[in-house]
Amino acid sequence: MKGGSKTSVIAGPGSAGLTDYRVYTLSRRQRLACLVVGGMALYMIGYVFFHSPLISLVLMCGTFALPKYWSRYLLRRRRESLSLHFKQALYSLSSSLAAGRSVENGFREAISDLRLLYPDGSNDLIAELGIICTRMEYGQPIEEALQDFSRRADMEDISNFADVFTTCKRSGGDLVEIVRRTSAVISEKLEISQEIGVMLAQKRFEAKAMLVAPLLFLMFMDLSSPDYMSPLHSGVGLIISAFALLLYAGSSWLILKISDIRI
């Protein structure tokens, strides 16, 4: 369910039509894929518990709530990628300024460096740096372009860099040293976040395995001992199966909530 995303835009002074990284709007292809895959998954779960096509179709009504959660997941991944690419761009900008290049050329060099790392060019930060360079060519101060980007990104690291850069540019401070120090601080923070993410990855995998295990067990019992499981698919057994499904749904929500640790 990766298809192309539909760009979320905001209106405002100097930012009309530009991407807003605080929201994520699914494209038609992504929404359709989410509904189809989610509907099939819910139907399968319903059939495993009840062996009733009618009840399984009723459970499929919950499919329409899935795009909201899928868009939240994609938004988080997009913001994580933006943060990582921003760190890489700061490395490039710091090196360019230390080599004696102007700020404008430093941003252009950052675009070239990111394109070397990501040849396909499908990178939000490459697009944003291109917008900043275009605005500079039209005579807009670079600090205004950075502040607009920081407002749309709404991320602490980018906002801090934009504020420090703006203050330094207007007060005539040591821009090279400021960028170098800011780059170092943000890089250390991101490296710690990545280390924590690696430690959490195993636990998240275990959580997903725990979610799938009950379904696999029920499928195994249905295949190996259908007569033993048949009382659960009619009469009072349907009530027991419904109660078991509610427990499974509640446990799944709790597991996902616990494993969804924001770094």
Automatic annotation (TrEMBL):
<feature type="transmembrane region" description="Helical">
    <location>
        <begin position="32"/>
        <end position="50"/>
    </location>
</feature>
<dbReference type="InterPro" id="IPR018076">
    <property type="entry name" value="T2SS_GspF_dom"/>
</dbReference>
<dbReference type="Pfam" id="PF00482">
    <property type="entry name" value="T2SSF"/>
</dbReference>
<feature type="transmembrane region" description="Helical">
    <location>
        <begin position="235"/>
        <end position="256"/>
    </location>
</feature>
<feature type="transmembrane region" description="Helical">
    <location>
        <begin position="56"/>
        <end position="75"/>
    </location>
</feature>
<keyword id="KW-1003">Cell membrane</keyword>
<feature type="domain" description="Type II secretion system protein GspF">
    <location>
        <begin position="90"/>
        <end position="221"/>
    </location>
</feature>
<protein>
    <submittedName>
        <fullName>Type II secretion system F family protein</fullName>
    </submittedName>
</protein>
<keyword id="KW-1133">Transmembrane helix</keyword>
<feature type="transmembrane region" description="Helical">
    <location>
        <begin position="209"/>
        <end position="229"/>
    </location>
</feature>
<keyword id="KW-0472">Membrane</keyword>
<keyword id="KW-0812">Transmembrane</keyword>
